[in-house]
């Protein structure tokens, strides 16, 4: 029965990058593209600000509340854990999930504050490993030119430079680095090709695994 529809699962695809790298636009376009081809696909964002943990995160990001660096790190992680079982159910049911940020943001943003790399990775252990990580590569200066940063906590060039360095420590064979300085349509085309290929691989029964692998 290998390869039959009962076996086929959705792909777990993550878009990562600095603030204003364009990943939010690209992730929603990817979902539209996949749906247009008749695939089942959903866009998920982390942090998910709709849950009660997510509301604490949102208030922290907008500087309405202050939290210890370790505490907020664990809240971001908890926000992914509270979606884990639904994530697995969706994937096993054949739905592809396009994630706007995931555990890599968790590690990169906290590590950029000076928290230990291994300490940052630890609470993510056991979450599902993405099949593909698309890193939209752009300098903080170029990203800020795109309408400028807002006033959320992390939206400063100096800090974003540190985040970029921390992201580099996380690159592995699942990653594809995408030049995000090109026109939006060019990036869109490139992402479509890579993601469709990944979706097809997952349909053929590649098993899910856990971070950090
Ligand atoms: P976004 O909604 O994608 O604009 O993300 C909000 C901000 O939070 C952005 O600056 C990136 C940051 N962020 C996202 N996920 C995490 C995380 O897990 N940990 C930390 N420390 N920051 C994160
Ligand atoms: Na942001
Ligand atoms: Na963002």
From TrEMBL:
Keywords: ATP-binding, Kinase, Nucleotide biosynthesis, Nucleotide-binding, Transferase. Residues 15-190 form the Thymidylate kinase-like domain. Transmembrane segments: none annotated. Pathway: Pyrimidine metabolism; dTTP biosynthesis. Its EC number is 2.7.4.9. It comes from the Eukaryota. Belongs to the thymidylate kinase family. This is dTMP kinase. It comes from Citrullus colocynthis. The lineage of its organism: Eukaryota, Viridiplantae, Streptophyta, Embryophyta, Tracheophyta.
């Amino acid at each position: 029965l290998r390869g039959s529809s009962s076996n086929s699962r959705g792909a777990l695809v993550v878009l990562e990058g600095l603030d204003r790298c364009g990943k939010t636009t690209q992730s929603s376009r990817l979902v539209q593209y996949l749906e247009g081809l008749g695939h089942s696909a959903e866009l998920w964002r982390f942090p998910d600000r709709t849950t009660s943990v997510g509301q604490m995160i949102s208030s922290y990001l907008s500087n309405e509340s202050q939290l210890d660096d370790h505490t907020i790190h664990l809240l971001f992680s908890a926000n992914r854990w509270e979606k884990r079982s639904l994530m697995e159910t969706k994937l096993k049911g054949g739905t592809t999930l396009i994630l706007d940020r995931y555990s890599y943001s968790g590690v990169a943003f906290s590590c950029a504050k000076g928290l230990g790399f291994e300490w940052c990775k630890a609470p993510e252990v056991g979450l599902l490993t993405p099949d593909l990580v698309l890193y939209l590569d752009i300098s903080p200066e170029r990203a800020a030119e795109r309408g400028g940063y807002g006033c959320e906590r992390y939206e400063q060039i100096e800090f974003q430079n540190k985040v970029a360095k921390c992201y580099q420590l996380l690159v592995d064979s699942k990653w594809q680095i995408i030049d995000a300085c090109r026109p939006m349509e060019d990036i869109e085309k490139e992402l479509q090709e890579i993601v469709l290929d990944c979706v097809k691989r997952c349909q053929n029964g590649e098993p899910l695994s856990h971070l950090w692998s």
